[in-house]
Amino acid sequence: MKKYFTLILIVVFSEISFSQVVLESDTQINEFVSIPQESVFVHFNSSLLFTGEYFYYSIFCFNNKTKQLSEISKVAYVELIGKNNEIIFKHKIRLNNGIGYSDFFIPVSVSSGNYKLVAYTNWMRNFNIKAFFITDINIINPYKTNKATYLQSSLDTEFVNLDKDSLLVYSTIKPNESMLKIVLNAKHFKQREKVTISFNSSKEDMVLKGDYSISVRRKGTISKPLELKSADFIKNISNVGIPAPSIGSEVFLPELRGELLMGKVTSKNNEVSVNNLKVSVSIPSENNLFKILQTNEKGEFYLNISEDYSSDKIYFELLDNQTNQFNIQLITNDSIGAQNLEFNEFKIKPEWKQEIIEQSIHNQIESAYFEFKPDFLLPMKVRDLFENRIADTFKLDDYSRFPTLKETIFEIVKNVSIRKIEGDAYVFELQGFNFGTNSSIKPLILVDGIAVQNHTSLLDLDPFNISEILVYRDQFVFGLEVFQGAIVIKTIKGLNDIFLLNKSIKTATFFKSQANKKYFTQEYNAETLNNRLPDDRQQLLWVPNFELTNTNNDLSFYTSDVLGEFEISLEGFTKEGMPISLIQSFNVEH
Fold this sequence. Notes:
Elements: H1 5-11, E1 20-22, H2 26-34, E2 38-44, E3 48-50, E4 54-63, E5 68-69, E6 75-82, E7 86-94, E8 99-105, E9 113-120, E10 133-140, H3 147-150, H4 164-167, E11 180-184, E12 188-190, E13 194-201, E14 210-218, H5 230-235, E15 250-252, E16 259-267, E17 278-283, E18 289-294, E19 300-305, E20 313-318, E21 326-331, H6 353-368, E22 376-377, E23 392-395, H7 405-411, E24 416-422, E25 425-430, E26 444-447, E27 450-451, H8 455-458, E28 466-478, E29 481-491, H9 497-501, E30 506-509, E31 517-518, E32 539-548, E33 554-558, E34 564-574, E35 579-589
Parallel strand pairs: 3-10, 12-35, 26-29
Antiparallel strand pairs: 1-15, 2-4, 4-5, 4-8, 6-7, 6-9, 9-10, 11-13, 13-33, 14-32, 14-34, 16-19, 16-21, 17-18, 17-20, 20-30, 22-31, 23-28, 24-25, 26-27, 28-29, 34-35
């Protein structure tokens, strides 16, 4: 993996548009071609969904050379695209050892029709779109349907017209051909009854360890697009070539170290150089993500984010009080669009009417009681920005409140002073552990995780809106900038954007990655089995990251009040990269 970083180091200050570089030497070309291509596989809960339902998916990213889970890209992108370039959603997915997952609630604003699910990494954008994961997803909206377009008058019309090339990508594997088998504790179950799945190997010496996702969902009778299986995906992995790159070729960078964001500084009068400017970047979050970046000769700067974060707001400020001479903007990454996608004809058959009504009723009931069955965001991995250094903490409620921040600092906060420098300008100073104060080195000041270098502007803060002030007396180095300690101010009501805009801090909303969730799993016991809360789940279980080991081979869930045939679908790969595709059905009866 270490060798892949060489390309980044060589080209990060080259001619660049977002996430792209222009190859300028044979050395850069050799670095580019040395990185293996990637492919992605997506397992999802269904290729036919109704508005008001959740679309769940897991993504597996593979190294085409080794046919193992990839360690190259740390980020993948998933889009659901409709005709006329309609983007239903676009997700950025963090990959952990090549694996990630997320979900999307399909709103009633989405029309019935055929859509394309497209998944890729930034590195894959260098290659033919045929290298992307592309499959059909059909959506039925019973509340917003153009009958003239979607309602069939003839029962003989085919639901989907698949051409010969499309047929090649669909699964040929049979469940009984798999080396891993699903064993249920029964074939028929009652409502709200416990179902136990056991996973057994058909060979005694087979290692079961692997990474999988599992969906348990009511089958239904409505036709739906066929779904690619992991076995066929692995079989069809190949290096989809592009013309050999040459000097001057533009290529997309792999996101090797996390999410890659790009910003650009431009001169307001086009006469001042934009090279080697220092830009402070803040993303307020539990992690207080803060970095000092440097521009290249075109004013571009790059931010790699490997830490967890929760906000989609990013704040920029030029150091050395140069903001009035420059503009700062965040460069966004566009969708791949629908121009290279071919959409199938979508038709709804009259005989589906009753099932559409029944499924819609189930979905409406589930939506009405969603608050009793919530999913939960997984806690963030919190990283201490100040490397576990000890802070002196001053909770202002423990003291008498003063009308100004200047008086508050003077009367309450130890080892911090405010000095007037020229005109109406002031600077905060912090005394180090050696009891000396280096007035030439400013402390870092964060207000609710946002770096503020204009110390004078801080005097406008309302001290009655401050909950606590933390003082770190250590010296810190961020990027190429040295700070004499740090002052962290936490407010009660948050900062007003008007305050920030008036203080030379630029703000933007960026395309953030999806947060990981723990999905709701219904459980029953003797006390809750007969409760009156309706259970109309058609999706009985979704486990996006089930890790199978030789000692962990069981999984349990409960049926709902919905009757019919249900299907267990498992997709994934063993630790050796062997694909596993399993399908097993069972019935829920009165």
